C-alpha cells in the first residue's frame, strides 16, 4: 500500500472537494461518483474500488477494476455481504484471504476472483439514503494506514455527498409543486419556451392540453380543503400515468394542469385528452363514486393556434373555457389563435 504525507492528504481532500464544487457548477452526483473509485485506486494503490449510493427511489454505483466502468441502476441489487455489514453496523469491515471460513465473503459484489483483501467503509447519509466506499487488493492485505486513509476519504466524501444530494433535492423542490409533485408553473414556462424553440427550429409541431377540475369549489365546501388536496394528488397521478414518457405534466394553477405533447398534432392531442377525461370519470375519488368528479379540457396546437407561448396558452385557455360553457366533462379543441397579450404570471 502507499503511505502519504499530511500535505499529500490535504491535496487529495482538496481534489475530492473540487469534484463537487457547487459554486462552480459541479453538481452531478453520477459524475462525482464516477471519479471516486479511480481516485481511491490511485491513492491507495489497490486493484479494485467502488462507491455506491442508494437514494429514495434509485441508486448509483461506480466501480473501477481492471476495466473502469460506471453503472447506473434503478434498484440496488446489494453492495455485497461485507459492505452490507458495514452499512448495518455503521463500522468499517475488513476481510482478508486468511479469514475464509471465519466470516462473510464479499466476492458477490465485484467480479474479481483473485482478491486477497477487502475494506468496506460505510457512508453515513441521511436516512433512507445509504452508501459505501470499498477498496480491494489482489496483492495482499491492506495495511492499517491505508484503512485509516480510506476512512478519512469516506468521512470527507460523506459531507460532499450530503451537500450534493441536499442541493439536488432543494433544486427539485424549487421546480416541483409541493402538493402534487408535478412540475410547477416556473418550470412549465421554461419548458414551453424550450419546446417552442425546438419545434420552430426543426419545423415540427406540438400540442398542449389544459385541464381543469369541474366543481372543485363545491367539493371543497362540502368535504374540506384537505380532501380537495387529496383529490388533486390523485388526479396528478392519473395525468402522469396517462401521459407518454416524452410528455411533460405540470401544475398550472390552483386546480388547473397543463400537459405538453411534443411532436403531436391537434388530432392526437384531442385523443389523449379524451383518454384522460375518461380515466378521471372512471375514478372514485375521496367521498365520491366514479363518475361524480370530472374534468374539462382545452387543446391547442403549435403553430396553428399560436406562435408564441402566450398566444398558444391563451388558445388552450379559451378552449377550456368553451368546455366549461359546454356543460363540462368534455374536450374542446381551439378554433383560432389565442391572444398574444396573455400575461403568464404564477397562478
UniProtKB/TrEMBL annotation:
Gene3D superfamilies: 3.30.450.40, 3.30.70.270. Coiled coil: none annotated. Residues 204-336 form the GGDEF domain. CDD domains: GGDEF. GO terms for cellular component: plasma membrane. One of its GO terms (biological process) is cell adhesion involved in single-species biofilm formation. Pfam families: GAF_2, GGDEF. It comes from the Bacteria. SUPFAM superfamilies: GAF domain-like, Nucleotide cyclase. GO terms for molecular function: diguanylate cyclase activity. PROSITE patterns: GGDEF. This is GGDEF domain-containing protein.
